[in-house]
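tokens incoming
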């Protein structure tokens, strides 16, 4: 390639192109740029291919790659010629380093076009590797200015044709001389994003299912484990939990009866072996186990789960041996990794790289374990020997102490688990993975997450929004910011306000709880009761005073209380209690709060029993606060007409019950209303990106580029945003000439930073109708500026806009959250009182509407104190356009539209500032695992 437009010297090895990925079957592999030293591995890959695969790739028989081709294929410049390889661990008995299982390459054919080719190992075809490599080579090409791929494909190569067709890109194909020429537009489309997200969801869900559904469990201990030591106790408890759960597993296999996961224990010295060989099988080493189990893999593809309770160095060293066993996942109770400092972090990275290259997921380090309880699969690989019973709640947490607290709380309330996972340091498996799994898991009806850190908030928001539309998601974050980062957790810094996380969770439809207690309060309601169809609440209590207190609490939580409440006095009999309770339950209400706190105590509780029976009969959403009762209790259980037992959840206090009901009612309303449709105002995205790329071409990495007014106008114009024309002047004569050009009346504004938008300091003069007024204002402002600042500053002349409400729209690119859009009314009061709303693009029309209406000062936009309503749809349109711009252009470091005047007939941008920088947002057009 000799095109002058591409005289860029061969770039350095693009480390950012490396990524770990999950394939369709849930296994993992590593993708990276090809290197010169890959020649032998590439030849081995080629030789192992079938004649058919070689013919599909080269259109001719080619038993071996000639040396000149090996040289050309492995020596690339990563600009005009690039190649990516997918690598895996060596096969059994091989000691050849990484094994290539797939190749994707492009060769530039024009300024913005390239020819692309793929070759996938026969052994992994059908696992989605071709689709993954297409995403990654397309992302690499876009970085180098390539916008179009072309490929020649034989008609018989149906798999490759399907990869192109199903990727979601815009493409054309032409058949000529028995060869298809496929041309692909590399700009991501809505369909390509949707296809990628769905493939990602299925792959991640499948990878988690392999954690829970295993053929065997391999417990790896250290040969130096001392009897009675902490490590020995950990191993003993892990084996005890596994043995107990194995007895519960009933898996029918070919009619031969139950098949239970086998338990193999490796490395544990004889003195520490406490379990009977009837329950577990002991092995001296992983090599010895591999020899025994060779050829013993189940036909259904299920592999072992490895549980590691060994020192960190031994845990890392165990990975190759576990790979030989075709282990699907590693569960690390072990500590001593990233949480202990740089050396531990390097150990963690080495373990993660080795595991992923071998196709394994990693839970931990520092995990408390995982648990799955369902009709056909039960595995307890935790340190809790007596876990909660099977149920419908899925729980994710991170640190082991949090796991202990959660499991104890769930058991104490009588709740049941469908699945549980403690991620420890969250080196690999995260809450995002569990949400992908829960989306398809019919046994999980309520998803609960305790998040001590969030590694990828944008992805979390996308997945949580999708899951929340199907089943409730309850979230607790550590600290109000959600970024009290424990040692060992990899989290990018954030500059966003603390409320940004709240807004992200609200947009996603998740139920935010303050702590574990609140999370379980909400979970037990969601687990046992239907969602309320509205906010109308009936109250029945054991005293009028209690009923009044509950009514006040209900109103504070956004519930509408029925005028009439029911009171069952302490001495009332069962018949009287049933009559009062039925009156409340049969009224026009959506939910009922029952409070039974007898002054004299006593075991006979007719109110509680009557409430349970009414709840079962009517199907009303019901919560109760009964003295001395918490969680699911017998007194609050009854049978509904179809014979199903209904539990009314009990709460420690009436306030807890009402708070949980209010949270669930808000979620139910979100489900009913829907989260809206994603706002996609018309935009020229290609031109915007071309402009940004051109402006940043000469900017060095790590520096910001402040755009001048003309460039800001040009960029905003790509998204349908127009700034009211303005002229910067340096004299009164220039000011009058500018006003004559723009049209009277005009505003005169200071350009000095300290005086911008500050009418109170003399920085703005409005409604100047003629040359005399303008000259007078100019002289006064120039003098005041010099007095205040000690120097002169130019002034701006701008056409006046019809009176309205001044607003501020901003966007910032945050290292953690990505683009964050904010909205508020202009003025010091708004800034001082933090009356600002936030949104994380992409925004739906409902998100935009909520951003406007959630402000405390929002009434000024809808008619206030005799002033009529403003054009709210117009400012919503501005917000939607800014959100799309921020989402589309990661190089947009900051944008400020201040002020935007919302009048009765439009929204007018009077001033805009923008800053660019080279984008650092993770590429969302390709699938990649964290780490």
């Amino acid at each position: 390639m000799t095109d002058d437009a591409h005289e860029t010297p061969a770039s350095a090895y693009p480390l950012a192109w490396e990524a770990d990925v999950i394939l369709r079957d849930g296994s993992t592999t590593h993708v990276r740029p090809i290197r010169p030293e890959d020649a032998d591995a590439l030849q081995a890959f080629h030789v192992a291919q079938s004649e058919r695969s070689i013919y599909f790739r080269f259109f001719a028989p080619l038993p071996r790659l000639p040396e000149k081709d090996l040289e050309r294929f492995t020596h690339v410049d990563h600009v005009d010629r690039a190649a990516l390889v997918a690598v895996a661990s060596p096969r059994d008995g091989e000691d050849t380093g990484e094994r290539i299982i797939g190749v994707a390459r492009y060769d530039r054919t024009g300024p913005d076009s390239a020819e692309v080719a793929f070759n996938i190992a026969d052994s992994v075809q059908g696992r989605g590797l071709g689709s993954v490599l297409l995403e990654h080579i397309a992302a690499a090409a876009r970085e180098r200015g390539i916008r179009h791929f072309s490929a020649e494909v034989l008609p018989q190569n149906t798999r490759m044709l399907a990869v192109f067709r199903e990727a979601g890109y815009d493409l054309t194909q032409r058949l000529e001389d028995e060869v298809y020429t496929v041309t692909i537009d590399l700009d991501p489309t809505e369909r390509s994003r949707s296809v990628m997200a769905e493939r990602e969801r299925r792959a991640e869900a499948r990878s988690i299912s392999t954690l829970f559904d295993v053929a065997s469990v391999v417990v790896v201990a250290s040969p130096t484990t001392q009897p009675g030591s902490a490590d020995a106790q950990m191993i003993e408890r892990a084996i005890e939990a596994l043995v107990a759960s194995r007895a519960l597993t009933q898996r029918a296999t070919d009619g031969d009866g139950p098949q239970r996961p086998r338990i193999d224990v490796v490395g544990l010295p004889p003195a520490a072996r406490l379990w009977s060989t009837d329950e577990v099988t002991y092995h001296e080493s992983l090599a010895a186990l591999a020899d025994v189990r060779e050829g013993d893999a189940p036909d259904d593809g299920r592999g072992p789960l490895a549980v590691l309770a060994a020192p960190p160095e031994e845990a890392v060293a165990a990975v190759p041996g576990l790979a030989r066993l075709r282990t699907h996942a590693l569960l690390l109770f072990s500590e001593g990794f990233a949480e202990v400092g740089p050396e531990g972090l390097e150990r963690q990275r080495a373990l993660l790289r080795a595991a992923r290259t071998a196709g394994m997921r990693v839970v931990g380090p520092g995990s408390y374990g995982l648990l799955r309880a369902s009709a056909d699969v039960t595995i307890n690989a935790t340190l809790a020997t007596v876990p909660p019973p099977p149920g419908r709640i899925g729980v994710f947490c991170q640190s082991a102490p949090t796991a202990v607290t959660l499991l104890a709380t769930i058991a104490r309330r009588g709740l049941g688990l469908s699945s549980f996972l403690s991620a420890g340091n969250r080196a690999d498996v995260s809450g995002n993975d569990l949400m992908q799994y829960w989306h398809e898991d019919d046994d999980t009806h309520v998803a609960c997450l305790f998040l001590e850190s969030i590694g990828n908030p944008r992805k979390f928001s996308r997945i949580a929004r999708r899951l929340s539309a199907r089943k409730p998601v309850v979230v607790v974050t550590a600290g109000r910011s959600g970024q009290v980062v424990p040692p060992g957790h990899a989290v990018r810094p954030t500059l966003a306000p603390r409320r940004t996380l709240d807004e992200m969770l609200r947009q996603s439809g998740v139920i935010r709880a303050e702590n574990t207690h609140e999370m379980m309060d909400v979970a037990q309601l969601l687990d046992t009761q239907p969602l309320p169809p509205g906010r109308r609440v009936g109250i029945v209590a054991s005293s009028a005073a209690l009923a009044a207190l509950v009514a006040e609490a209900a109103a504070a939580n956004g519930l509408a209380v029925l005028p009439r409440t029911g009171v069952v006095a302490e001495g009332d009999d069962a018949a009287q209690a049933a009559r009062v309770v039925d009156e409340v339950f049969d009224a026009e209400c959506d939910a009922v709060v029952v409070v039974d706190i007898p002054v004299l105590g006593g075991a006979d509780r007719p109110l509680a029993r009557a409430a349970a029976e009414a709840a079962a009969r009517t199907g009303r959403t019901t919560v109760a606060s009964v003295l001395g009762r918490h969680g699911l209790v017998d007194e609050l259980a009854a049978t509904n007409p179809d014979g199903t037992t209904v539990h009314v959840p009990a709460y420690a206090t009436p306030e807890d019950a009402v708070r949980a009901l209010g949270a669930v009612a808000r979620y139910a309303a979100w489900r009913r209303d829907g989260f809206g449709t994603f706002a996609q105002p018309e935009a020229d995205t290609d031109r915007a990106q071309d402009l940004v790329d051109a402006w940043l071409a000469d900017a060095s990495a790590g520096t910001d580029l402040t755009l001048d007014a003309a460039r800001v106008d040009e960029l905003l114009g790509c998204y349908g945003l127009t700034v009211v024309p303005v002229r910067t002047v340096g004299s009164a004569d220039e000011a009058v000439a500018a006003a004559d050009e723009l049209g009277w009346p005009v505003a005169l504004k200071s350009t000095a930073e300290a005086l911008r938008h500050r009418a109170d300091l003399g920085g703005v003069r409005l409604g100047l109708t003629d040359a005399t007024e303008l000259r007078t204002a100019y002289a006064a402002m120039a003098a005041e500026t010099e007095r205040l600042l000690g120097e002169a500053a130019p002034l701006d002349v701008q056409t006046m806009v019809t009176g309205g409400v001044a607003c501020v729209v901003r966007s910032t690119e945050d290292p953690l959250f990505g683009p964050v859009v904010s909205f508020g009314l202009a003025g010091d009061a708004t800034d001082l009182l933090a009356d600002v709303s936030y949104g994380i693009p992409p925004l739906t029309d409902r998100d935009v509407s909520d951003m406007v209406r959630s402000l405390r000062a929002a009434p000024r936009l809808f008619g206030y104190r005799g002033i009529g309503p403003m054009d709210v749809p117009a400012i919503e349109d501005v917000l939607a356009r800014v959100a799309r711009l921020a989402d589309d252009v990661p190089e947009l470091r900051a944008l400020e539209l201040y002020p935007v005047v919302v009048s009765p007939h439009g929204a007018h941008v009077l001033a805009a500032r923008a800053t660019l920088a080279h984008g650092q947002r993770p590429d969302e057009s390709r699938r990649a695992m964290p780490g």
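note: The domain at 525-673 is CATH 3.40.50.261 (Rossmann fold).
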